[in-house]
UniProtKB/TrEMBL annotation:
Basic and acidic residues bias locations: 1-11
Listed InterPro entries: Biofilm_reg_signaling (IPR052155), dCache_3 (IPR029150), EAL_dom (IPR001633), EAL_sf (IPR035919), GGDEF_dom (IPR000160), Nucleotide_cyclase (IPR029787), PAC (IPR001610), PAS (IPR000014)
Official protein name in the record: PAS domain S-box-containing protein/diguanylate cyclase (GGDEF)-like protein
Keyword field contains Transmembrane: yes
NCBIfam families per the UniProt record, alphabetical: GGDEF, sensory_box
Domain GGDEF: 671-802
UniProtKB keywords: Membrane, Transmembrane, Transmembrane helix
Chain segments carrying region Disordered: 1-20
PAC domain segment(s): 459-511
Domain (PAS) ranges: 508-579
Length: 1073
């Protein structure tokens, strides 16, 4: 029943008024149509007029839509050109800035010039800058070099005395912040250029300033070449310095209002270009920027070029030729208009013929229908009485509604279903019906009825009635909509069937069946007397492989090989006697194919009126068992990876340190008599000449030879790269015998793919207890002896002697310089991003420490961190790194940059010092950075010394704060599964030594894949370092979903460049990757 027919009393009056209004309008419309179509018998004329109007409207819509679409297509390449021009201008400025900074670095490191400015000698500056200016102009395009003293007074300019002027914006900025400043400024000769100003330091004191600049001619030429467009730089006259005003008034310059531009070298500018500038380019609309001149249509793009003080200094105008695009726009539009007109004509001719044939068919059909209606009227009257009786028996009420007059009729059974007396008027009865329908169901019912009326189709739906006594009835409504000969809906006929009892029974059955069938456990029902199965759910049937028919001929002991009928009945006897309510036990079930699987069974007795049933719920434990086996296998594989080198088959560094910790305990009286540190001579040459496969073959063969020659004397370990360590087997082993054996065995030639390799080894020997009694000391001394063998010509061995400690002086010097560097704030950070290999989203930024040495330039960590680790500077440098890293993170947060987490490498000495936690707390409170935004990268070596438990405790406290912990250099020989499993580790970093050979070395690829699978099994993250090529990236991408880091993504960069990279990464990253 349509919901418009059943409204409450408050809506009835308003609805009646609307119905009357709609009825009057409908009748008026019908009257017009009947008069126009001769009472519905002549519809040809109305349809033709309607169709013609439709054709005209549709043609107009198509043409307008095409004009809008073509106009947008015409605009699109112009907008893209503007974006490309902006990017090119920004990139050219950045390239020029970098070039000038390189040139500036060369000037500042010139000791003669430093002495000249320190002495304020103009002649010395002029003499020193002469050749330098020529060289920098040739190499970097430097147009001008200006030197100022500390009071910002110019001492010398390569442009001559005429260039002297007051302090520029950049000069004042550099003087104020004592750092490099760069931007766009006018030079002394009136040229707008890119300039860089930097303080000139001598003995850490500012003695002056130097400014270098280069013109914008080359960047603008590059933009013009790339865009194939004409480029002009428009100067804002109010921003041009007084010294440059005269230059802008010379020949070759054109003035337009408040602007001026140089016409020399810009042949072919539109004749109206000056007028375009006078109107103000930035304020013009899209159409106003179009210019037609000499049969060419151009579009003017304006790119603002800001001065160093952030005020606009000039505007770069790019004139784009859009003639061909405009011609295409005109051609396509004209083509569409002609096509639409032609098709409209064709459709009109076809429609005219069809409507004529339709008119004839309608007349014949109408006459036939009128005869049939008269014949059926009497039969309908007779059927009415029989229908009323049938409705009463079946609890089915019928109803109908005239959509034209609004009249409605209900059968007697409809009144019974709604629960109102038979003498109730229809209007009041439908109000009751409407109130009894739940509000949540009313929109659905109205939508179904509206859809049926609009399409003149059938309807079929169910709804609820909530009677006055609170009883809920379920009603099934079916019916159809009758249309007149014009296709308009005129009447609705429907039935309402009370299906409450059937609905409740079906709902309960479906609920129980759904629960049983959807269960992930196996559910069985079997008779308590015969023990034959009567029911098994989907899970049970699929697991056993039997159909329900097959199971009904079987008993539980037929699918449980560990039970017989006797033992099974005996086990269930307590349930039958009522001694227990539930029986739980473990069992094994056998499938139809003979395979077995473990289950946990819960069994209960269900008593019906006529019989008893057992309900058994079995949980398949196969997955749990398989998972336990998989975890055990993964642990064994990881232990193998952690303690054995995959290439040579020898024990690795982690195994060596583990064994050394045991052998060199103070309580051990039978310590090894010596340690040998061995290195393959000229191994890099083998890799460079024959390739890495040859190097791997050489290492593999060397491992096998060492295994043979160390028999009964020592144990060989691969320390890393081409280095090996040998521990003596006991206190009486002879190092000289082992060295003789090793030299003899290793000198034998190796054959690799027809190439003979003549290997040799250099060895260093440290004896115990003469050279030390602990492993660390002996290894250092053996390493010193190894380098003595290298210095003496290789292919030999050397015993450690005390004179090999000369290098300690160099370390002392570095330590002294480091302490001074910390006071001068020469320690700084560069940053390298980490991105997800699948989504390319930035997941982290690693902070890498650098030293800006006053004489040696920028030094990497390898040049000073070994000394830091050996001294008490580890905590100081570590605290500096943490503070600067969190300072950068705070800045990126303030800028709204998504950087994932900032990663900090933890020094083992810093970790052991006891200050690490406090340093993190202080830095986090100082900069307001949450622990969840920090990653602490730690080497596995910190867990291999006596302070392992203390180190683990510190990491656990960091982890509890929310700091992300990653195990660095995993796979190089340090890492152990025990640390991955036992410690609070959130992620692994796979060393670059595996990543950069993942394409050349199948074994390395397998190792990387296994490590990624191991991390996935342990639910921890992975970062692959050293990704440098697209091929490496593609191969790693096939291994899973994790993060990568390397030169392919981005090189380490200063904070400012990292910020720009993060700002552009959502767009640029896809192109990089």
């Amino acid at each position: 029943m349509r919901m418009e027919d059943v409204r409450d009393g408050g809506q009835e009056h308003a609805g009646g008024n609307r119905g009357l209004a709609n009825g009057r309008f409908s009748r008026r419309l019908d009257s017009v149509f009947r008069a126009w179509s001769a009472n519905g018998r002549q519809i040809e004329k109305p349809l033709k007029v309607t169709f013609f109007t439709f054709l005209v409207v549709m043609a107009a819509v198509l043409i307008i839509q095409n004009l809008v679409t073509e106009y947008r297509n015409f605009q699109k390449p112009i907008a893209e050109t503007a974006a490309v021009a902006e990017d090119l201008l920004r990139q050219q400025r950045l390239d020029a800035k970098v070039s000038l900074e390189h040139a500036l670095a060369g000037i500042l490191h010139n000791s003669a010039l430093t002495a000249a400015i320190a002495s304020q000698s103009r002649n010395a500056l002029a003499e020193g800058l002469g050749p330098v200016a020529g060289e920098l102009k040739a190499r970097h395009g430097v147009a001008e070099i200006v030197v100022f003293d500390r009071q910002l007074t110019m001492l010398h300019s390569t442009s001559g005395p005429a260039a002297a002027a007051g302090p520029s914006t950049l000069l004042r900025l550099s003087s104020r912040v004592q750092r490099t400043a760069s931007g766009v400024e006018y030079t002394g000769d009136g040229q707008l250029s890119i300039a860089v100003v930097r303080p000139w330091l001598a003995d850490s004191q500012t003695v002056g300033y130097v400014q270098i600049s280069k013109t914008l001619d080359k960047p603008l030429a590059v933009i013009g070449q790339v865009l194939d467009a004409r480029v002009a730089m428009i100067h804002h006259l109010d921003r041009v310095p007084t010294g440059s005003q005269a230059a802008l008034g010379s020949d070759g310059w054109t003035h337009a209002g408040a602007f001026a531009y140089q016409t020399e070298g810009l042949d072919g500018l539109p004749s109206s270009f000056a007028a375009l500038l006078e109107e103000g380019l930035t304020g013009l609309s899209f159409l106003e920027r179009l210019n037609f001149d000499d049969r060419q249509l151009t579009f003017a793009h304006g790119l603002t070029l800001p001065h160093a003080d952030d005020e606009p200094a000039a505007t770069v105008v790019v004139l784009q030729d859009v003639t061909s695009e405009f011609r295409s726009f005109v051609f396509r539009t004209a083509t569409l208009i002609v096509t639409v007109a032609f098709l409209a004509l064709i459709f009109w001719l076809i429609f005219s013929r069809l409507i004529r044939a339709l008119q004839q068919s309608i007349v014949a059909t109408r006459q036939k229908l009128e005869r049939e209606v008269d014949a059926n009227t009497k039969e309908l009257e007779y059927s009415k009485d029989r229908l009323l009786e049938a409705q009463k028996i079946a609890s089915v009420g019928s109803w109908e509604r005239d959509l034209v007059t609004g009249e409605m009729h209900w059968s007697d059974e409809m009144y019974h279903i709604v629960g109102v007396p038979l003498d109730t008027e229809c209007a009041a009865a439908r109000q009751v019906l409407f109130r009894q329908i739940p509000p949540a169901e009313r929109p659905m019912l109205e939508e179904a009825m509206d859809r049926a009326i609009k399409t003149c189709s059938d309807f079929d739906y169910e709804h609820q009635l909530i009677r006055r006594d609170g009883a809920v009835r379920h009603i099934h409504v079916r019916g159809y909509v009758l249309a007149d000969d014009k296709g308009n809906a005129t009447k609705i006929f429907g039935t309402s069937h009370d299906i409450t009892d059937w609905h409740r029974a079906r709902q309960q059955s479906q609920l129980l069946a759904g629960i049983l069938e959807a269960s992930m456990n196996e559910v069985y029902l079997f008779d308590a007397s015969t023990f034959f199965f009567e029911y098994a759910n989907t899970c049970g049937r699929e697991n056993l492989g039997y159909t329900m028919e097959e199971l009904m001929t079987r008993a539980p002991w037929d699918i449980s090989p560990q039970h017989t009928e006797s033992t099974f009945r005996q086990m269930l006897a307590p349930l039958l006697r009522g001694e227990v309510g539930v029986l739980n036990f473990e069992s094994v079930q056998i499938r139809k194919d003979g395979t077995e699987y473990p289950v946990d069974v819960r069994l209960q007795l269900y008593r019906e009126r006529n019989r008893d049933l057992f309900v058994a719920i079995a949980s398949d434990q196969s997955e749990r068992t398989a998972r336990e086996h998989e975890t055990r296998a993964a642990k064994e594989a990881a232990e193998r990876i952690a303690y054995f080198d995959q290439l040579t088959g020898l024990a690795n560094r982690a195994a060596c340190q583990r064994d050394a910790e045991r052998l060199f305990r103070p309580s051990n009286t039978a310590k090894p008599s010596f340690i040998i540190h061995m290195d393959l001579d000229n191994f890099k040459r083998i890799n460079d000449t024959l390739g890495h496969p040859a190097g791997d073959y050489c290492l593999e063969e060397a491992g096998e030879r060492l295994r043979r020659c160390c028999t009964e004397i020592g144990t060989a370990y691969r320390w890393g790269g081409d280095e090996f360590v040998i521990l003596a087997d006991g206190p009486d082993a002879d190092p000289e015998e082992l060295c003789e054996r090793a030299n003899l065995v290793m000198r034998a030639p190796m054959d690799f793919e027809g190439n003979q390799i003549w290997p040799s080894v250099s060895m260093g020997v440290a004896r115990c207890p003469q050279d030390g009694t602990d492993f660390g000391t002996l290894l250092v001394h053996a390493d010193l002896a190894l380098y003595r063998s290298k210095d003496n010509g290789k292919d030999r061995w050397s015993y450690f002697t005390n004179d090999m400690k000369v290098d300690s002086d160099a370390e002392a010097r570095i330590e002294k310089e480091l302490r001074e560097a910390i006071q001068r704030d020469e320690i700084f950070l560069v940053f390298q991003p980490q991105v997800n290999i699948r989504t390319q989203k930035v997941t982290g930024v690693e902070a890498l420490v650098r030293w800006r040495h006053p004489t040696r330039g920028v030094l990497g960590p390898g040049a000073f961190l070994p000394v830091v680790e050996k001294t008490n500077l580890a905590s100081i440098v570590g605290n500096i790194v943490i503070d600067k890293a969190l300072q950068a993170a705070r800045a990126w947060q303030d800028q709204g940059r998504d950087f994932g987490r900032v990663a900090v490498n933890l020094s083992p000495s810093h970790l052991f010092s006891g200050n690490l936690l406090n340093d993190f707390h202080v830095a986090m409170d100082k900069h307001g950075v949450e622990p969840s935004l920090i990653t602490a990268e730690v080497l596995e070596s910190v867990f291999l010394d006596d302070a392992r438990s203390d180190n683990s405790k510190v990491l656990e406290e960091l982890h509890s704060l929310g700091v992300h912990i990653e195990l660095d250099d995993f796979g190089t020989g340090y890492a152990s599964l025990s640390h991955v499993a036992d410690l609070p580790i959130n992620g692994l970093k796979i060393d670059r030594s595996f990543t950069n050979q993942v394409l050349e070395d199948v074994k390395k690829e397998i190792v990387v894949n296994q490590l990624i699978n191991l991390a996935r099994s342990l639910d921890i993250g992975v970062v692959c370092e050293g990704v440098e090529t697209d091929a490496q990236f593609d191969r790693l991408r096939m291994m899973g979903d994790f993060s990568v880091q390397g030169y392919l993504i981005a090189r380490p960069m200063p904070f400012e460049d990292m910020s720009e990279w993060l700002a552009s990464s959502p767009e640029d990253l896809l192109f990089v990757i």
